[in-house]
Amino acid sequence: MSHGLLASRSALPRKVLAGVVLTVGIFVPAWAGAAGAASPAPVRYLPHLKVWILDTERTSYVLGLNERNELQSLYWGEKLASERDLFAAHSRPGIASFDSSETVTNNEYPGWGGRYYNEPALKVTLADGVRDLVLKYVSQEIRGDTLVIRLKDIQYDLFVNLTYTVFPREDIIRKQAEIQNHTSQALNVESAQSGVWYMPVGEGYRLTYLTGRWAGETQLTREPINPGKVVLESRRGNTSHQLNPWFAIDVGGAADEEHGRVWFGALGWSGNWKLVVEDTPAAHQVRVTGGYNDFDFSWPLKPGENLSTPPYYGGFSSQGFGEASRLLHRFERDEVLPDRAHPHVRPVLYNSWEATEFDVNEPSQKSLAEKAAKLGVELFVMDDGWFGQRNNDRAGLGDWTVNRQKFPNGLGPLISYVNGLGMDFGLWFEPEMVNPDSDLYRQHPDWAMNFPGRPRSEARNQLVLNMARDDVKEYVFHALDQVLSENNIEYIKWDMNRHFSEPGWPEVPVPEQKGIWVKYVRNVYEIIDRLRAKHPNLEIESCSGGGGRVDLGILERVNEVWTSDNTEAFDRLRIQEGFSFAYAPKIMSAWVTDVPNMNGRSTPLKFRFLVAMQGALGIGANLNKWSPEDFALATQMVSTYKSIRETVQQGDLYRLFSPREGNLTANEYVSADGKQAVLFGFLHSQQFLWPAPMIYLRGLEENALYRIKTIDNKLIVAPGIYAAEGVSGAYLMHHGLRLDLRGDYDSSLVILERTK
Ligand code: GLA
């Protein structure tokens, strides 16, 4: 029987074994679970092999120490049935004198040093000018779901703690590194990565990732992985619309939505990040290194100081991209989002931005609020324009005091009115920004990031505050805290409408100035964390001109994100599909707005509602222009949404027809308890009288019966399908359903309730 090291503590005695310092723990049978059940611990060490196994419910990740005492990645994929199948790590032989064994071996956390030529995880310059770093194993500690492996340079007291946390239910593992300077002099970190994920050695892999732009975020993009590197990154200060820190890899199209091996990963960082997808020409190691972007990066580490890297998550699915997404969605809901301990559904919100833009005032907001309340809206959000001299985008950012021309008695009367209508109140801020035409900038021009004497490039007439400065951080915290303390505000939309430029920080010594990229984000996180601690009921939406700040770092702190400034429903199908590969529907704020919209397109109100009902539903239309028929339909749709939102937001998503591939988009959501399933269908544009294709449902129980409800008469069915006792899951999944969708932008919703 194999044995696992279930508990080891730093207080336990240490023993040196053939040059390897092992923390000695209490050996108990790995198969002994808490109640004696045959459930192995998620993290186990096999001392006879010097191998660690990290098990989730369906996957295994295996690491080992090779004969050079390097930490080597051995396996990542479907769960290994038996520890008897494992072997000790051994390096791969080098290739001639050009590709060293160190390079062609899958080093789990390679320092840049010796004959190592792949993308390193860590690159440093030591005080004496040495730029050579070779990391070897020192010790380990296992604490339940967590493994900490300690590495050290072969000469200097530079240590790295690698922390692995296993999330068994979601098949996800989190990697994080902490670089520790125990030398007596300062050293400089030039690249600090969180880790590397290795695919099995092979050729013909395919990369799936998300790219985009303002008003065109999360476009799913696929390309073959060939020898060389593909760099996905942000150099813009925040996560960016242009690329998102998520990837998925399969073997050359062998996977689809339902089948095949898919490895995926994501970084939890809202600043400059980098993912290097590499296929090494000599050995076809396919590896994805991720962490802080090393572009313009430099982090001096004084003696005794540490630098920790962002969390880097990885997961594996043997059932295609659909399951990979469902695992990530579940992980975000269970382990990342602020309400992870007590998940609750997102409210239906109204946001005034597209209706009023900057022209907000008490009477007009009250009038919109009355109309929104009648629709069944639960959260009324006032967007930009309520503060300082904010009559357009040229002034006011930074002055977070209520504009008394627009709100003579402050926000109190509006908020009470909104609350009296039965809705919570939310407010827009753009805390990291300043307009040169603002009191804040006139008082503190040095607070904008700048290089002295150089131009300060404006975007949308604004500059970026240097949030890395602690005085700026304190100002922003107190400005927001004051508004939140004086008013009953349940929700803020935290916006960021431009990227960095001239990222100078002249107030600190030159060697520390490049730290602005990291310190800025840490301070933004700190402000949010402090605001939430002080205002425990506060909920936050992350926005950056739409989906410019969506990542697993900000999602630890915000409840939802503004997916895109593009609210045009047909474009949204693509944006939302890409979004759903990495992020849960619950996070995805989606509004119904007016037409004609972007691209000059007009889609029916029903189509717009059904598109937005696939996420956290909001309404952003100018309700003053709506007809009684619009109100009637909207009221019905909001009510229908409330009856299915638990399923949409907390359930499992099955992407059945992709908007990238044909004329029909169809998505199905199945509730966590399996009692409800909902099917959304959208026809883009009918041609030649062709009928919409059969839709095969997924995720149902074959022998269970489901009662069918539709919101229209668009379901083409066999006689008797509406029978009270329902139709079987087998029929719905194998025979399928067809929707009678016609013309342009037709849509439908089918709700299935399990009867037994
Ligand atoms: C950004 C946001 C919009 C709106 C405006 C306000 O563009 O994405 O939703 O809040 O700012 O200026």
Give a short overview:
The chain is of the alpha+beta class and 756 residues long.
Shape: globular
Q: What value does the Rg take, in angstroms?
A: 27 Å
Number of domains: 3
The biggest sheet amounts to: 10 strands, antiparallel
In CATH, what is the class of the largest domain? Mainly Beta
Average pLDDT taken over every residue: 94
CATH topology of the largest domain: Beta-galactosidase, Chain A, domain 5
The CATH architecture name of the largest domain reads: Distorted Sandwich
Secondary structure: number of strands: 42
- List the ligand species: alpha-D-galactopyranose
Low-confidence stretches: 1-36
* Beta-strand content: 25-35%
First-to-last CA distance: 44 Å
Q: Which structural category do the helix and sheet elements fall into?
A: alpha+beta
CATH-defined superfamily of the largest domain? alpha-galactosidase from lactobacil brevis
Helical stretch count?
A: 13
Q: Roughly how much helix do the residues carry, as a percent range?
A: 10-25%
Summary keywords:
single chain, 756 residues, alpha+beta, Beta-galactosidase, Chain A, domain 5, TIM Barrel, Immunoglobulin-like, 10-stranded antiparallel beta sheet, 42 strands, disordered N terminus, binds alpha-D-galactopyranose
Can you give a write-up of this model?
- The chain has 756 residues and is an alpha+beta fold.
- The protein has three domains: 103-336, Beta-galactosidase, Chain A, domain 5 (Distorted Sandwich), CATH 2.70.98; 349-565, Aldolase class I (TIM Barrel, Alpha-Beta Barrel); 656-754, Immunoglobulin-like (Sandwich), CATH 2.60.40.
- 19% of the residues lie in helices and 31% in strands.
- Strands 10, 11, 12, 13, 15, 16, 18, 19, 23 and 24 form a ten-stranded antiparallel β-sheet that branches.
- Helix 4 runs parallel beside helix 5 (412-420), helix 10 runs parallel beside helix 11 (605-612) and helix 11 (605-612) runs parallel beside helix 12.
- The longest helix is centred in the C-terminal third of the chain and has 23 residues, at 628-650.
- The two termini are 44 Å apart.
- Mean pLDDT is 94; it is low at 1-36.
- The structure holds alpha-D-galactopyranose.
- The site of alpha-D-galactopyranose has 11 residues, from loops.
